[in-house]
Amino acid sequence: MPILVQRGLPAYKTLKQENVFVMQDRRASRQDIRPLTVAIVNLMPIKEITETQLIRLLANSPLQVELELLTLSSHKFTHVDPLHMETFYRKFEEIQSQRLDAMIITGAPLETIPFEQVDYWDELKQIMDYTKTNVFSTLYLCWGAQAGLYHHFGIEKRILDKKIFGVFPHTSHDKKSGLTRGFDEEFFVPHSRWAESPREKIEAEPALKILADSEEAGVHMVVTKNKRQIFLQGHSEYEWNTLKLEYERDVLRGVDIGVPKNYFKDDDPKKRVVVRWSGHANLFFSNWLNFVYQETPYDLAGLSSSDD
Measured between alpha carbons, how far is 296 from 76 in angstroms, rounded to an integer? Predict the structure, then answer.
């Protein structure tokens, strides 16, 4: 939530320059308050796990959020109870005439498949185009981030020789960015992927800025200059045991998979998991919601294009 300050207070100018969320008392007295509408396009096979992970982070804020869970018409998800989908999810076509404060497009286990060969690619492109004029801020996660960077900026993903798997230290490159406000110089993020959006192509795109990266895991957080499109290649939302379950599943299947780095105590899968990313995960989502709350129009009919 914003800090309300009196007009003329010297700290106001300094804090505004640092992108700290402060608001003059005159503006606050005239401000209308309403819930933020956030939609999640859940592309993961096991819906309930991803729902829980993201809702936990969205709920860790004093802001009131109204949630929409969205699915696709062009693909039938088989790892979820149909009744769950009927009860809690709406199809994109049902909401495409609405405007939203924010949207999250999740990842999907499709990293080695060309985007055009994904059976719901055309519908996903339609959703991504919709976000540019109908959503104030869109957060793309992992494969979703690679898909968004490809669709909006033509940045093709690169398949890796070895899976990036573990919890890696990252560096934040803009201390004044509202999205990384309060971050330590080094923070940790889980990764689990076989592909990446290449750094050199991101750096060559003038509309994009790298906010955080890792020497081992590569680029993590990329934003457009107006921060209305945010791309995360890591998985800040992961629970403490997500990588553990992935690792044990692959071992049982006979997959040649290494132990996730910096995850188990002493990198020993017989020892406990060391959680070192959840604080910054909560901080990032809180910062993102505060950014949306501060900048989104009260009347979404006045929403401009994200290209503006």
Answer: 33
